[in-house]
Every structure is written in C-alpha cells, then in structure tokens.
Amino acid sequence: MTGYHAALAIHPGTSYGVAVLLAGHYPDAAKIAYDIFDIFQPAIDKSLAELVTSVYVGKWASLNKNSSATVLIDKGTLYAENLFVDGADILAKFNFPHRVPLRSTSRDKFRLDIGIPFYNSKIHMGCYPYWVGMDLWGMRDGHALNAMEFSAEGTGRRLHLPAIGVEMIRAK
Predict the structure, then answer these.
(1) What is residue 138's predicted lDDT score, i.e. its pLDDT?
(2) CATH 2.40.128 occupies which residues in the chain?
(3) Domain 58-170 class?
(4) 108-113 long-range contacts, Cβ below 8 Å, gap at least 24?
(5) What are 105-138's pLDDT values in tens digits?
C-alpha cells in the first residue's frame, strides 16, 4: 500500500525519542524505530554506565573511617552493596542484609529502595504497593531516613546520608 507512514517512539529507560517518517510501500515505521533503538541503545547504555560509574560507583568512607559504603552498578541499576555508620550495619538494621537498589529521586539524590517497614519478609522484601508511597521510613531533620545524596564539593565527590549527618569521600 503506497502512502505515508510515521512512528514516534520514546525509549522508556533513557527517554530519548526516535521519529520515523516514511513514504512509499513499506508500512512498518514502528519496526524501523525499534531497529534504531536496537542499534543505538547498547552504545548509550555503555556511555551511561561509564558516567554513572565515574560519579557514583565505588567504595566510600568517612574521614574518621567509622562509616563506609560500597555503591555498584549491575545491569544498569545502582545498588548500595553495604552501608555502615559508626560500625553499625545499616542495611541489616533495615532488615535488608544484602545489596539494596538505589531509586533516583532527582539528580544526585537517591533513596535506599527497601520497601515498606515491617513488611520486609523473605517473600516480599523490597516490594511496596505504588499507592502507599515509597518513603515510609520516616524523616529526621527534614530528610528521609533512607536518603543518600552525592555532591561535588571541594576537590572531589561526596556521599551524604543527610538524615544522620554522615559525609563520606571515595576510599582509596
């Protein structure tokens, strides 16, 4: 069938768009858009992983070495592998003794995505109904208890746990 065909597609993970405009016999503009995603997305994923690695991933420690964290990336998701504050295993205190995904709330700001308090069982760990809200762990000094923030201050990057006033730098 001769005519005009068009597709506009937005990649859900990285939010860039592809517009395909066709004239002629080939009617499947959507397939071409998906083919474009298949071609470009691996390079975009690699670039984003490199950027995220340089900005967030690594071992972090407070200046007094009493607090530490390890942030890693796995299949495009950031995780807090461990988190110790004044020697206490914070992830275990949240009843989440293994790595926790970091949910972005804005640039350089994340939440430990640990789900609903007192609902963390081996079956439902990390789950939450979307209508309930995701920051039910409470607040302290205007900051969510599960907040983790990054900044560029002075000579390097910093990791902050604002609710408890802990600041860390990249460990060497």
Answers:
(1) 66
(2) 58-170
(3) mainly beta
(4) 108/55, 108/149, 108/150, 108/151, 109/147, 109/148, 109/149, 109/150, 110/78, 110/147, 110/148, 110/149, 110/150, 111/135, 111/144, 111/146, 111/147, 111/148, 112/80, 112/83, 112/146, 112/148, 113/146
(5) 888 999 888 765 444 444 444 444 443 444 555 6
Point out which residues pair with 169 in neighbouring strands: 61, 158
User: How far is it, in rounded angstroms, from Cα 29 to Cα 54?
Assistant: 37
Q: Return the sign of the alpha-carbon dihedral for residues 59, 165, 142, 84.
A: positive
Mean pLDDT of the chain: 82
Tell me which of 92 and 14 has the higher pLDDT: 92
Q: Which amino acid would we find at residue 42?
A: P
pLDDT band of residue 70 (cuts 50, 70, 90) is: very high
